[in-house]
Amino acid sequence: DLEAGPGVRQSKLDDADDSESESLFYIAGDLMWKISDTSTFTEELTSEIGEDITISKSVTGLKTQINGDLAMKITYTIKNTSEVPVGIEKNDTETAVTLVYSFL
User: Fold this and answer.
1) Residues 37-55: pLDDT tens digits?
2) Phi, psi for 26 (deg, rounded to 5)
3) What is the helix, strand, coil percentage profile of the chain, to 5?
């Protein structure tokens, strides 16, 4: 899946009283690859390209069926912000392990 379009972002820092608005261009892509009957690989990429700040995010995942209704999903997320306050990292990462129960 691919999607794209214009948008507006409003940002406010914790220590500031006012907020900033900027127009942006949004683009996203989703990939799903069924590796086998019980395993699926996913990749989600998004980018908000603004006048001043660009925010890009990647979520990579693997979902595996444990038994009929129970599955395990592992994801790794990387988020990059092009402009950040002094002392803040530009990249944020997150690793998650989730148990999923289906009610189908």
Assistant:
1) 999 999 999 999 998 889 9
2) -105, 135
3) 0, 70, 30
Q: How far apart are CA 4 and CA 46, in angstroms?
A: 10
CA distance linking residue 52 with residue 65, whole number of Å: 43
What single letter denotes the amino acid at residue 64?
T
How far apart (Å, rounded) are the C-alpha atoms in residues 75 and 14? 29
User: Which amino acid type is present at position 34?
Assistant: K
Q: Give the confidence band of 24 by pLDDT, cuts at 50, 70, 90.
A: very high
Q: Assess contact for 51 and 64: CB atoms under 8 A.
A: no
Question: Tokens 């700040």 correspond to what residue?
Answer: 53
What DSSP character marks residue 102? -
Place of tokens 């794209």: 4
Q: Rg of the chain over CA atoms, in angstroms?
A: 18
Q: pTM for this structure? A: 0.83
